[in-house]
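Progress note, project year one: complex with LLP.
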Amino acid sequence: MPRHTITSAVSPARPFHRPDSHSSLHCGAISLEVVAKKYGTPLYVYSADQIVERLQMFHSALAGRDHLVCYAVKANSSLAILKLLADHGAGFDIVSGGELDRVLAAAPEAANRVVFSGVGKTAAEIDQALTANILEFNVESEGELELLAARAAKLKRKTRFALRVNPDVFAETHPYISTGLREHKFGIDIKRAATLYASVKGNRWLEPHGISVHIGSQIRSAEPFGSALERVHKLVRQLRRDGIDLCSIDAGGGLGIDYHGGHSDPAARVAGYAAAINSALNGFEGRLLLEPGRFLVAQAGALVTRVLNVKQNGRKTFVIADAAMNDLIRPALYQAHHEIVPVRLRPGRARTVDIVGPVCESGDFFARDRKLAPVEPGDLLALLDAGAYGMAQASNYNSRLRPAEVLVEGKRARLIKRRETMADLLATEIV
Ligand code: LLP
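Model obtained:
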C-alpha cells in the first residue's frame, strides 16, 4: 500500500486547503480551528460549494441527454445536504422508509424524484412510498414484485416500477461493496427479466417504467459501467420488440474517488464515466437516472478530531485522537485509506505513527504505520474524504455521542446537526 506524505493531501479535488503555509487548514473560507473551537470535536465539516460543484459535473457531462441525478441518500443523509441537493435539482435514491422520511422532511417537493432501491422492502415501506407518489420502485425480486402489485391494488395507486437486474459484471472494488455478480444478493438475473416484465402485462396497477442496475461502489474505472449498460440496453431493445417500452434506464451509483493523493481530476472522471454510458446507450432516447452517493459528498467532508495523547508502546508511536471507529468506521470495516492532515503544521520531521481512537478494540484505528508531521496533545487533525459513509455509518458504540456536523456555505459555516447528548441516548431506554 503506497504511503503518502501529508502535503499530498491538499489537492484541488478537495475543498480543504491552507491559504498559506503558516495558516490552519480551511474549508473554503472557514478555518477548521475556528469551527472546532466553536462546536467542539469530533466534528464533521462539509463544503456545500463542492457538493454543488460535483452535481454540476454530472449535468455538464450529460448535457444533451435527458437525465436525473438521484443522490444515494445512504452516503450522507443529513437533512441540510438533502435540501442543498434538492434545491439544485437532484432526485434521490432511497433504500428504506427512514430515508424517504428524511427526503420528505428536507425537500417534500422532491418526492416525485425519488427511486426506491433495496433488497428487502416491507409492506409498510412500500405503502409509504406509494402514498408519497415516488418516481419509481427498483424491484429486486419476484416476491417483491408480487408484494408491490398487491399493495398498489390495495391502495388503488398506479405504480411505476423498474426491475433491478444483475448483469453479472465484475467491478474491481472491496468485496463488501461489490454487487454486480450473480452470486450477490442484489437484483434479478438479467436472463429472467423479460419473463418478469411480460408476467405483469395487463396489470392495471403496475406500469413497467424502467430498468435499473447497480454494480457496486468505489469503482474507479468506467469500463464495467459501460459493460453493464450495454447488457441492459440490449435487453431494453429486446423488450421494445416484445411490446414493452421502458422510458428510463437507471445506471445506479458507484463512481469512485481517489482516497489517496487526491490528484485525479474529478471532472475528467465524470466525463469518462458519462462517455462510457453514452456509448453503451447510443440510440436510447429515454431518461437516464443515476444514483451517485460517494462521488458527490465524500471529498466535500472531513472529520476533525483533537489529539488526546501521544504515546510510545515498544517501537510503536500511537497518536490517540478523540474520534474513534464509531465516528468513522471505514478504516476498520474495509481497511479503507483516509488521508490525515494536521490542521496546523508544526516544524519538525514526520514520524511513523498509528492514529487510533479511544474505543476498546484494536480494530479502532484510522491509520497504521502512517507518516505524520509532528503532533502534540491538543492539536487538531483532519481526516479527509469523510463526507460519504462517515456520519451515515456512525454509531454509539462505547456509549459515545455522535459528532456534530457543520456545513460551510460560501463565507458562512453553520451547524446542521448538534452533538448528541447523553439524554438523547438514554431517551429510548427503559430500566
Ligand atoms: N445505488 C445503490 C442501489 C446502492 O446500493 C449504492 C451504494 C449506491 C447507489 C451509491 O453508491 P456510491 O455512488 O456511493 O458508490 N459503506 C461503503 C459503501 C456502501 C455502498 C452501498 N451501496 C463504504 O463506506 O465504502
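The mean pLDDT is 94.
The domain at 48-297 is CATH 3.20.20.10 (TIM Barrel).
No further modelling is planned for this target in the current period.
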